[in-house]
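Hello forum,

I keep getting stuck at the same step: I have a sequence, I want structure tokens, and every attempt I make locally crashes halfway through. Rather than fight my setup again tonight, could one of you with a working pipeline run this one for me? It's a single chain of 248 residues.
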Amino acid sequence: MNDQPSTANPPVELHPGLDRAPIKDRFAATGRAQIKDILAEEAADRFYQCLTQELPWRLAYNEGANALELTREQMAQMTPQEQAQFQNGIFERASRQFQYAYSDYPAAQTISNPDEPNFYVHDILRFLNGETFQSFLKDITGLEGKLYADGHATCFQAGHFLTIHDDRDTNDRRAVAYVFNMTKNWRVDWGAALQFFDSDLNIVESFAPAYNTLNIFRVPQGHAVSFVPPYATGGRFGMTGWFHYAQE
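Reply #2:
Ran it on my machine without issues. Output:
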């Protein structure tokens, strides 16, 4: 089973120089914060390597309420006409309803699967559920009680996007959303910005892709990931999920 961290990897640790006070003030004022240099350098470098070189990415997309995935092999089996029809279907649905399309690796669903390798993203997820990070998160956000994190690795490239939504779930147990940004050399006009909206749908804040940066925000809160245009040549790598209130 791959439910234990690999001893060959550096331990996942917070950067020792984090200044919590301005992060706490920012979260208290706006319900969101951008935490730069979140991980110790060795852990950040290993996380980046895993995301950019090792994961078997799948295309995550939705058809209405149905969350779906396609492997690279399945995509490769499509004819050019089928690929164009598939992409046009995603864009057509996005014109009238909630829609997303991006590359994905489901870390939370694979962490205890004996048939899956133990990737460093699994170590990151274990760290988020550990005492050190849980104490840090509660200090920053003021949350109380038992929390647990899920998560999936993501990569946004040309043609990818996530339309506006607020992360509200039917059980009302999502407390805080998080987005690890592990992206280097990103141009701001390549999109993939995490955008936040007010009640009039004005963009009130936008977090650009960055390296070794953790974005956290209170749920519910209207947000989106802006469209990545065809001329973008890089990938916006990261890991995203929610901290949930645990059931009693």
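Residues 163 and 224 are 5 Å apart (CA to CA). If your local run keeps crashing, start a new thread with the error log.
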